[in-house]
Amino acid sequence: MNVTILVPVFLGWLAGALVNYLADVLPARRRLDQPTCPQCGTQIRWADYWLLRNCRACGRHRSWRTWTTYVLGLVATVQIWLFPPRGLGFVLGFILLVYLATVFIIDVEHRLILHPVSVFGALLGLAIGIILHGTASTLIGGAAGFGIMFILYYFGVLFARMMSRRRGETIEEGDALGFGDVNLAGILGLLLGWPLIWIGLLTAILAGGAVSLMLILGMLALKRYRVFTAIPYAPFLILSAVFLLYR
Ligand SMILES: [Zn+2]
Asked: Among 63-67, 95-99, 117-121, 158-162, where is mean pLDDT lowest?
């Protein structure tokens, strides 16, 4: 057996552990802190946390997301070790994978893109973008991603306002598209650069729209349609960027 395969296996485990930890701690505590049980709030001992033991106070099992993330982290890391993505290479591909997976999970679980996470992503996107396709393409790509998504966000707010006035009811501002999605589109613009960000955004918006349409039709069929169920664009933005970057 080739011993070097143990390197990506270890790194894959590390990726899973890191993504799980960040996704567990950041939305709840907003800093790198000791994890607490989501069910009873008791602090989890570090040893118990890393060994994936159940909560000592309430017996809660570790989430299925924890296990899935470990498995997918391992599979993805071994994959990019064996077939490093063109341009990115293994090291950058690995760091970016951890970052995007963290943003993906936090957004799916909490509908939230945290500000410090966006700032970190902008710096990472800037560095990787410049390495991949130079300064000009990176900066224009970032501005385009941010700008296009901002316009969509603004129209979403206007549309929501118009509909609520027509119905004579108030709804929360900015429901149609969260502002975190705008920041994320800017980060992906830096990563993909100009003009590739166009394809990234288009793929994400079409996929997000198609899935939302199916959900709305499903809810209509079940007569459970709620007005303005916001489209969660972030997961689609991330998937389309991964598709374009990890080739
Ligand atoms: Zn507990």
From this structure: 158-162
> Distance, CA 193 to ligand 1 centroid (Å)?
44
Q: How close is the Cα of 66 to the center of ligand 1, in Å?
A: 15
Please name the amino acid found at residue 66. Answer: T
CA of 39 to the centre of ligand 1 (A): 5
Residues 152 and 209 in one domain: yes
Q: Give yes or no: residues 15 and 97 share one domain.
A: no
Give the C-alpha separation, 24 to 112, whole Å: 13
Burial 87-102 (b: 16+ CB within 10 A, else e): ebebebbbebbbbbbb
Residues with CB under 5 A from ligand 1 (ion): 37, 39-40, 55, 57-58, 60
CA of 49 from ligand 1 middle (Å) equals: 12
Number of domains in the chain: 2
pTM of the predicted protein model: 0.88
Chain Cα centroid distance, residue 222: 29
Q: Does 73 share its domain with 117?
A: no
Tens digits of residue pLDDT in 232-244:
789 999 999 999 9
pLDDT in tens, 98-135: 999 999 999 999 888 888 999 999 999 999 999 999 99
**Range(s) of the domain holding residue 70:** 1-83
